[in-house]
Structures are given as structure tokens and as C-alpha cells.
Specification:
Number of strands: 0
Number of helices: 7
Order of helices and strands: HHHHHHH
Helix content: 40-55%
Shape: globular
Distance between the termini: 65 Å
Structural class: mainly alpha
Radius of gyration: 23 Å
Largest sheet: none
């Protein structure tokens, strides 16, 4: 019995050692990989369960347009994260025209902005650069936006009937900004 127990323990120890030798360098290499996420991207804790969608070419182009407009307006990665998360919630990053019966009033574009609420003309709010700039101008008016939860900052600008829904997109928006900020 002692011989069987000893062989079992030695076998498990040998297997553990061999696994460590094989997996160890992989784990060490992963840990040494530098983070590409900009430091300014997340300043508050991510709230709630997160959603994610697979983006097509048009949606990725819209992410890049939002980031370009954010940079052009002299704002940082956090502003881009809030803008992209807002657009993910409002339109899934699709530049939507009038949707007929399914339309929420006269909301259109990436941010579902409304001409009747003063966001601009239909042509303006369906232009990604204009729409993003309009959103960012609203964000600049929110005292402390940089340090507040994403959903609170987005809601203050958007005045949505569903104010907590923006939070679910923070992780994907953060990842998209990290991926495209320097491209």
C-alpha cells in the first residue's frame, strides 16, 4: 500500500512539474505582454453586466469616425469611450436614417439625435463627424463628466428614457478605443 501511495504521489508531483515547465513560459510571456489600453480610458468602475456585438465594416468605420472627431475636438480617450458606448446603445454604431413606424419620434444617426430637439438638421445628425461633435459639445457641458460613471455622463447628454442602458457597452467601447485610438 505504501508503495502504491508513494508512486501515485510521485506521479502527481511529476505531472505537476511537467505542466509547470510547459505552461510556465506561456504564462510568463502573457504576463509580460504590455497593455495597449490607454490609461485615460476607464476612470470609474464598469457597472453591471456587459453586452457585446460583432461589428461589420460600416460599424468599424463609425468607431474610427467617432475617435477622429473626438481627437479633432481636443478630447481624450474617455470621451471617445463614452461616445462609442452611447452610439452602441442608441444605434449599434449604425448611422440610422428615419425608421418609419419603428422610429423614436424623429431620432436619427449614430446617436439617435432629434432635429426637433435642436441637435441639427437631418443631414447634420446623420454625418458621423457632426453628430459626434454635437454629442461631445453636450458632454463638455457636464460638470465632472470625466470622473462620473459612463451611464450618468451619457444620460446627462442624451436624456434617454432608459438611462441605465449605456453602462452595458462600456467594456466593448473601451476595447474599441484601445484598438483604434492610435490607428
Amino acid at each position: 500500500m505504501n508503495t502504491i501511495l508513494r508512486k501515485t504521489i510521485l506521479g502527481i508531483t511529476g505531472l505537476t512539474f511537467a505542466t509547470g515547465v510547459i505552461a510556465g513560459p506561456v504564462t510568463a510571456a502573457s504576463a509580460a505582454t504590455p497593455q495597449t489600453r490607454p490609461a485615460a480610458v476607464t476612470t470609474t468602475a464598469v457597472q453591471g453586466e456587459q453586452s457585446q456585438i460583432t461589428l461589420g465594416a460600416e460599424q468599424t468605420d463609425n468607431v474610427k469616425a467617432i475617435i477622429a472627431a473626438t481627437k479633432k475636438n481636443g478630447m481624450d480617450e474617455r470621451a471617445a469611450v463614452i461616445a462609442i458606448a452611447t452610439s452602441l446603445q442608441e444605434s449599434k454604431l449604425e448611422n440610422l436614417g428615419h425608421l418609419g413606424e419603428r422610429n423614436d419620434h424623429d431620432s436619427q444617426g449614430l446617436f439617435q439625435q432629434r432635429p426637433s430637439s435642436g441637435w441639427g438638421t437631418v443631414e447634420q445628425i446623420t454625418d458621423p463627424e457632426y453628430a459626434t461633435t454635437a454629442f461631445l459639445n453636450g458632454l463638455k457641458q457636464v460638470d465632472g463628466w470625466h470622473d462620473m460613471p459612463l451611464t450618468e455622463a451619457a444620460q446627462t447628454v442624451q436624456v434617454s428614457a432608459f438611462p441605465d442602458h449605456y453602462a452595458q457597452w462600456e467594456t466593448q467601447a473601451t476595447d474599441l478605443v484601445a484598438e483604434h485610438w492610435t490607428s
